[in-house]
Structure prediction request, 742 residues.
Amino acid sequence: MAESHNSLSGDRFLAYATLTPSAFVLFLLAGVPTVTVFLTSMQDIGMGETSGPFIGLDNFIWALSDPTFYSALWHTFVWVFGSVSIEMVLGLGLALLLNRTFVFRGAARAIILAPYLVPTVVAVMTWRYMFHDIVGIINAVLIDVGIIDGPLLWLSSQSLAMFSVIMVGVWKFFPFAVIALLGILQSIPQEQYEAARIDGASPFQQFMRITLPYVMPVFLLTALLRTIWSFHKFEIIYLMTGGGPLDSTTTLPILVYLKAFSDFEFGRAAAVAILTFGILCILLGGYFILIKRAEARQ
Amino acid sequence: MFLRKIPCATIVAGVAVCLLSLPAMAQVKTVRFLHNETDPPSIEFYNKAINEFEAQNPDIKIAMEAVSTDGRLQKVLAAVNSKTMPEIFKILPEERFLFANKGYLVPLDDMIDEIGRDDYLPGSLVPVDGKVYDVPYSLGNFSVLWQRDDLLKAKGLSTPKNWTDLEADAKALTGDGNYGFIFPAGKNRMTSIFLSHLIWSAGGTYFDKDLNVTFDNPGTIKALAFLKRMAQYSPKGIGSYSYGDMINVYMTGKVGLDIYASRLIANAALTTPKLFDETSAAALPAGPSGVGVKFVNANSFALSSEAVGAKNIDAARKFLKFIVSGDRLKEFSLTVHPHLIPPLKDVQEEVIKDGAASLKGREEIARIAFDTSNSLDFESEAGAQFKDGKVIRSGVINPYIGSIVARGIPAEVVQRVVFQDETPEDAAAWGQKRMQDIVDNLKK
Prediction:
C-alpha cells in the first residue's frame, strides 16, 4: 500500500515537473499581458510612456460615462450578431447541401472553403476595390443590370458601411460553420432517417426532429466560437473603414486601437479592453447555458 | 567503427565552424530602417542603395521595413512604447518637436554640415532648441492643380485662378458620369492636409503666433463652406477617400480637376499615357486671402536615440548620410518624378533635367511641382499671415498640432460638414473645443 502511495506521489511529481515548463510559458504568454493591461487601465499613460500616475478606476468611470463607449458597444453587437447569425444560417444551409450526393461534390466543397484560406489582408483589399464607388465592380454590375441608377456608397455611407463590413465578414468566415456542421451531419445514423420515412415523416419533419436536435450542440458551439472571434475582430473592420465614416463602424476593438494609437490614451484603451473582456464573459455564460440545455435535450 | 566516427567528426567540425564564425557574426551591426516609400521603384532604389552600402561596409547590415503612410505613426508609437525603435525612421514635421523634446532623437547637425547646410532649400531644415534632429530627403507638395485640358477646352473653360473660377469650372465639368472635382473626406491625414491648405488660403490658421488655438475663425468657416459646395461636384464616395483614391479615381478619366501631389502625374505617365497627354499642371487657385497657400512638408528621416531602444547609432548615421545626399538623393528623386522634390538646391536642377524624359519632355510640369513658395505645413502654420499674395511665416514651431492631426480632428470636422449637414460654424466650434482640450491636456 505504502509502495503504491509512493508510486502515486512519484507519478504526480513527474506530472507536475513535465507540466511546469508549459505552465510557465502559458503564464508568460497569457498571464503577463493580461496583468499588464489591468495595471495599465489604472494609470494615466500618454504617448511614449510605459507607465504613468496611478488613477484608480478613473479610466473605467470615463468609459462608462462616455457616449463613444456605448456607441462602440452597440456597433459591436450589430457586427457580432449580424455576421454570426448570417454565417450560421448560411453555413447550415450549405452544409445540408454538401451533405447530399451530387456530381462535383468534392469540387463544390473545395470552392466553398476557399474564402477561409484567403489571407484577411488580401481579401479585405480586394473587397475594398470591389466596393469602391467609382472603380468598384459591384456598383458597375448593379448599374449595368439596372438595379441601381448611381453608385452606392458601400463604405462611405453611414447607413451602408456596417452592412458592407458584415458581408465581408460573412464571406470570409462562413466556411468555418460549413466545416463544423458538415462534420456532425455526416455522423447522423442513416437508420433514423429510414425509420422516419417508414413512419411517413416529411423531409421538413425529418429535419426538425432528427437533423436539428443532432446538430444543435455543434451549431451552438460553433456560434459560440464565432462570437468570441468576431467580438474582438479588428483587422477586417479597420482595413475596410478604419471605424468610419464618422464612428459608424467603430466597434470596441477599434475604439481600443483609436484610444491607444490615435488619442494616445493607453490607460483608457486598456480600460475599454477590460470592459470588452467582461462583456464577452457574460455573453459566453449565456451560450454555455444554451449548449448545456441542447445537450440535455439530445 | 569508422562509420560511427564520421557523425562525431562532423558534429565537432560543425561546432568549431560555428564557434569560429561567432566573432564575425557579433561584429556585424544591424541597422533597422523604417520608411513609408512603398512604391515599387522606391523599394527597388532602397534595395540597390542598401546593397551598395553593405558592399562598402561589410560590418553593417541594413534591415529595411516599409510600412503604409496611414499606418506609419502607429508603428512608430508602438515601437517607442516598447523601446524597439528602428535606428532610422521616417518622421513627420509635426512629430519633430515632441520627439526631440522627449529625447527620442539624436541631433544631426554634424551630418547636415558635412552635406552642406547652405545647399538646403530655405525652410527645409527646422531646428528644435537650436539643433536639427531630422534630415529631409524630399519635399512633398500636395497642392498642385491637375486639370484635364481636353475637358476644359470642350466646355470653353480656362484654368481656374481662384476659388470662384474653381467652383464654376467644377460645376460645368460635372455631369454624364463625370465629376468636376475630387477631394478626400475620409477620416485620415490626407483629409486634414486638404482642409488645411483651404483654411490658409482663406486667411485662417489653426493657431496664432502665441500658440493659442484659433481654429474657429472666418477662414476655417469659409473653407468648410467651400468644401460643402464642392462636394456636389465630387464623387459621392469621398467619405472614405484617402491618398490613393485621389490618384485612382483621376485615372478613370472621370475627374476634371484634382488638387494633389505630383505622384498623380508620375503614375499617369507610366500607366495611362493618353490621360497624361490630356493633363496639365497649374498653380493652386487663390483663396479669399488672395493667395493659394500650398501644403508642402519635408519628408525626413530621423535617428532614434538609445532611450527608445536604438542600438547601432553610428552605423545608422553612416547609412543615413549615404542615402540622403549625392547621387543617391538624385536617384531616389527620379524614382517617382516629379513627385519627390529634392531638398538640396544643386540636386533639384539636375533632377528636372534628367527627369524630363519621363515626362515626355514637359519640364514645365516639374517646375510647377517643384515650386514650393507660399507654402506652410502643420508645424509652421501657427500665426502665419497672408498679405499681398504672399505667405508670411511667424517662425513659430507648433509643438501641439501633431497630436491634433494624429487624432484626425480636422478630418472629422470635414465629415461633420459634408456628411452630417452640420453648419461650418458649428463644426468649426466643435473642432476648436476638441483642439483646446488636447492643448490644455498637453500643457499640464
Residues 144-292+374-443 of chain B form a domain with the D-Maltodextrin-Binding Protein; domain 2 fold (CATH 3.40.190.10). DSSP finds 19 helices and 13 strands in chain B.
